[in-house]
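INFO batch 0412 | record 1 of 1 | parsing
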Amino acid sequence: MDWPHDPDGEEGSEGGRKYGQAVIAKKVDEDEDFPLNKAAFVEEYGDHPIRLDSERVVSLSDIFEHVEGEEFDDFVELHKAVGKAMRENDFWFYEGAAQFVTGKKA
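INFO prediction complete | emitting tokens
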């Protein structure tokens, strides 16, 4: 896929390898972006690459199609919704993530 920028470059990972939620979190200004509208956020960043692990890169919109809610009042609320969506939809790369998904046991 042609990304708007290199997922491992300065714009994608701030000069070092950052993965998943860390990349998404860097796109949010905690002081200015809340309440955060999901549709507007995806409109702005939807085609941006999110590196999940050393081999897999998806778009932000791929992840956000599974995020529940349309507006988030603060960073913690957004972070929880994104994490839940990532764990439940195989966007979470670390071993043991399944134990944190409601209704699933490790």
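INFO post-check: The two ends are 33 Å apart (CA to CA).
INFO record closed
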